[in-house]
Specification:
By secondary structure, the protein is an all-alpha fold. It is built from three helices and no strands. Helix content is 52%, strand content 0%. It has a domain of 36 residues.
Length: 58
Amino acid sequence: MKERRQRRPRRAFTPQDKADAVRMVKAGKSVSQVARELAPANDIEQSFNTGSSNVEAR
């Protein structure tokens, strides 16, 4: 039997985080750029530790 990978918990965003994201997109930033800027530091650190390439270094 194959071993199942544990899922990472979903990120939780406050209503203020969501409002900030919408404001940034409406101001002309791309959705992907806003996502990178609002990414919790823990996700970025974890991706570097695991060698994941889906989060860019700043």
